[in-house]
Automatic annotation (TrEMBL):
Upper taxonomic lineage: Bacteria, Bacillati, Bacillota, Tissierellia, Tissierellales
One Pfam family named in its UniProt record: His_Phos_1
Alphabetized PROSITE patterns for the sequence: PG_MUTASE
The protein's name in its UniProt record: Phosphoglycerate mutase
Gene Ontology CC annotation, any one: cytoplasm
InterPro entries: His_Pase_superF_clade-1 (IPR013078), His_PPase_superfam (IPR029033), PG/BPGM_mutase_AS (IPR001345), PGM_Phosphatase (IPR050275)
Positions that bind substrate: 8-15, 60
Catalytic residues (UniProt): 9, 81
CDD domains linked: HP_PGM_like (cd07067)
Single annotated GO MF: phosphatase activity
Length: 195
């Protein structure tokens, strides 16, 4: 059995500006850096030692991982966020109501189910081909949400309403080719958000 820990990156400039951010990138804000530091302290407090670490190729994910842990890691294109095509960097008010399905294809982006398959295939390949028991993966909100949806009926753990919190941690067990969600860790950022 392997344990995989999926983490969403810290808050970015585009998150704060409410811009669509998939394959385009923007830096972590000061708040985003602090969120990653808090997530790193949580990992330390748990005494978690990762045997391997992976990140999306996006700078926001790499920076989050580097703040959280001090260890070598591999950048993996398959862990990137949803490709929103020509709507990248535009205001979030242009997003349609959920579910998005194939909405972004008309703008040169990815179909929802192709995106979900990419995430599931990539994380499965990591689980299958990585030595050790504990694996850290830093990715993105929609990416983690699609992975979560795919494996939803294999677990009794459920996430609440709303989006996936920056630097939240989804802990999965990988057993017999299936991912079973064990826990979702969110953090109390109220002290740093109100400053």
């Amino acid at each position: 059995m392997k344990s995989l820990y999926l983490v969403r990156h810290g808050q970015t400039l585009f998150n704060r500006q409410k811009k669509i951010q998939g394959w385009c990138d923007s830096p972590l804000t000061e708040l985003g850096v602090k969120q990653a530091e808090i997530a790193g302290k949580h990992v330390e407090k748990l005494g978690l030692k990762f045997d391997a670490a992976f990140s999306s190729t996006a700078e926001r994910a790499c920076d989050t991982l580097e703040i959280m842990v001090d260890m070598p890691y591999k950048r993996v294109k398959g862990l990137r966020e949803w490709n929103f095509g020509d709507l990248e960097g535009e205001g979030e008010h242009l997003n349609p109501p959920l579910p998005y399905r194939d909405f972004f294809v008309q703008f040169g982006g990815e179909d929802e189910f192709e995106f979900q398959k990419r995430m599931v295939d990539t994380i499965t390949e990591i689980a299958e081909n990585t030595e050790g028991e504990n694996i850290l993966i830093v990715s993105h909100g929609a990416a983690i949400a699609q992975f979560y949806r795919y494996w939803l009926d294999k677990s009794e753990v459920r996430r609440g309403e709303g989006g996936i919190q920056n630097c939240s941690l989804f802990h999965y067990h990988y057993v017999d080719g299936e991912f079973i969600l064990q826990e979702i860790v969110t953090h109390d950022f109220s002290d740093i958000e109100n400053k």
